[in-house]
Amino acid sequence: MEVLVVGDEVVGVLVSRVDRAHLFVENVAIAPSARGRGYGRSLLAHAQSHAADAGLGGVRLYTNAAMTENLELYRHLGYVEVDRRHVDGFDRVFFEKTVES
Fold it and tell me: Quick one: pLDDT at residue 98?
């Protein structure tokens, strides 16, 4: 888990794990008061760097299909949609981004 602190305030968190040959992002969360400042992008860039440094093929993640802002952000950051599935009562969209080590 990575925690992003600005000043004395925790503004974001990134939870990830190695899943076979990729880094799987389980959660990216930004405090409501800190949204819109690029902290989510920064945490995802950190995940991509971590994956590259570890020699992994890329980063994988998913989001709820109803989270349209997330869908657009991931696409804008170069993530490619690779699957859509209904899992545990939610419509999920799966993304992947290749990184170079």
Answer: 97
